[in-house]
Amino acid sequence: MGRPSISDFLTNMNQEMPWPEKLAKLSRNLWRRVVLRQNCCGHEGEPGC
After folding, report:
1. Which burial class, exposed, middle or buried, applies to 30 when counting CB atoms under 10 A from its CB (0-12, 13-18, 19+)?
2. In terms of C-beta density within 10 A (0-12 exposed, 13-18 middle, 19 or more buried), how is residue 43 classed?
3. Considering only CA atoms, which of 28, 36, 31 is closest in space to residue 1?
4. What is the pLDDT of residue 14?
């Protein structure tokens, strides 16, 4: 899998869901990417992935 793109990130952040849920998924997915040392958290299409 290639490097993450800004356009994909912004598209994922534009999903319809409450802000608290969106921020929780964003932080969970970003930390998962850091811990696994990968470009994708495995939850494609969610905020932060």
Report:
1. middle
2. middle
3. 36
4. 84
Average pLDDT for 12-17: 84
What whole-number distance in Å separates Cα of residue 23 and Cα of residue 17? 10
Amino acid at 6: I
Reported pTM: 0.73
Could you write out the DSSP letters of every residue in 1-49? -----HHHHHHHHTSSS-HHHHHHHHHHHHHHHHHHT-S--S-TTSTT-
First-to-final CA distance of the chain: 12
**How many Å separate Cα 23 from the centre of its chain?**
10
